[in-house]
Amino acid sequence: IPINPLNSVLTMHSHIDRILWNEDQISRRVSELAAEIATDFRRCSPSPVVVGVATGAFLFLADLVRKLDFSIAVDLVRVESYGSGTQSNGSPTISFDLKLDINGRHVILVEDILDTGHTLSRVIHHLKSKGASSVSVCTFLDKPARRKVLVSPVGEGKFYRGFECPDYFVVGYGMDFAELYRNLPYIGVLKPERYK
Ligand code: 5GP
Ligand code: MG
Ligand code: MG
Predict the structure, then answer these.
(1) Looking at the chain, which runs of residues are DSSP E strands?
(2) Residues in the ligand 1 pocket, defined by CB under 6 Å
(3) Looking at the DSSP assignment, which residues form a beta bridge with residue 51?
(4) Considering the domain boundaries, does residue 8 fall inside one?
(5) Per-residue confidence of the chain (196 residues) as pLDDT tens digits?
(6) Best substitution site from 87, 112, 138, 140 to test ligand 1's pocket, by max atoms within 8 Å of Cβ?
(7) What domain count does the chain have?
(8) Which of the following is catalytic: 17, 40, 75, 115?
(9) Residue 4 CA, ligand 1 centroid: distance in Å
């Protein structure tokens, strides 16, 4: 199959206004984050537990952990927040809990996007109450302009972020609107007429 130089343009989903980060940019940034995390946690004992927030973090989690060249455990939590289509509400609940016992373990929490902060602050509180000895936060995107509650690591935990995101509703690379677009390999801005 011949390689078409217009490939990314031609394959851009018709519901996407523009691409903010393409596959290459995402992959390079994930490698940098993995290198930072490796520097901080390589010598950590017991090995850290990397916890992804389902469903949105599944691609970032999969890419990130494959680039961590040391011993880690992986687990998931699921959080439901019943907000409107493009915004979470203030009281998310844990609807699917960890399989692993994280008591006394260093946890690295992996999330797709940090927006108001309600979701991550809820999960951080939960991990702390289960005895995590530290909680680090690794969010691929961060929209600081929309923060309502402070999200801070616990104990010796660190904060990592891939990119600062402008205040648009974005989809792709795990992120959805009404459960669609998660499989897009890039991150783009959804055309407003799609959610209005
Ligand atoms: P927060 O609780 O910080 O307001 O929002 C966190 C969750 O809201 C994210 O995990 C994500 O599921 C959703 N979210 C926030 N901003 C966006 C966005 O721009 N696009 C998508 N698809 N989801 C978002
Ligand atoms: Mg999420
Ligand atoms: Mg969502």
Answers:
(1) 16-21, 49-54, 73-80, 93-96, 106-114, 134-142, 159-164, 170-171, 187-190
(2) 56, 88, 111-119, 169-171, 175-177
(3) 75, 109
(4) no
(5) 665 555 555 567 999 999 999 999 999 999 999 999 999 999 999 999 999 999 999 999 999 999 999 999 999 999 988 766 676 667 899 999 999 999 999 999 999 999 999 999 999 999 999 999 999 999 999 999 999 999 999 999 999 999 999 999 999 999 999 999 999 999 999 998 988 7
(6) 112
(7) 1
(8) 115
(9) 34
Give the residue carrying structure tokens 């946690």: 41
Based on the residue annotation, tell me whether 17 is a catalytic residue of this protein: no
Complex ipTM, two decimals?
A: 0.97
Specify if 178 maps to a domain.
Answer: no
Number of the ligand closest to the Cα of 150: 1
pTM: 0.93
Please name the amino acid found at residue 17: D
First to last CA, the chain: 39
Atom 4 of ligand 1 has which residue's CA nearest to it?
A: 116
| DSSP summary character for residue 108 | E
Instruction: Tell me the residue range of the domain where 107 lies.
Output: 23-167
Question: Residue 99 belongs to a domain with what CATH number?
Answer: 3.40.50.2020
Distance 88 CA to ligand 1 centre (A): 7
Let me know if residue 12 belongs to a domain: no
